[in-house]
Amino acid sequence: MIVYNVTINIEANAHLEWLSWMQQVHIPQVIATGLFHGYRMLRVLNTQEDEEGFTYAIQYQLQSMKEYDEYIDLYATALRADTEKMFGGRYVAFRTLLEEV
Description:
The chain is α+β, with helices and mostly antiparallel strands. It is built from 2 helices and 4 strands, in the order E-H-E-E-H-E.
């Protein structure tokens, strides 16, 4: 199994709006691509002293790299643009691709 992990730190003043949007709009759109076989949304509890805002990890599950490549080629750019349009300048994100062993 492949896990596409997106870690996001969102500013406190945008946190509740972002969380609602992720759960009601963005994640359902990602799942609606038909390429993912599940997901988990996790809140990071052990933050650094100087860290502000809230940090989450969203872990999308795929069966193969072929599905990941298709997601990146066909959907990722538009979905990332939607996030930027809604919350640009108020979050930082990084993405990690993992393989279950």
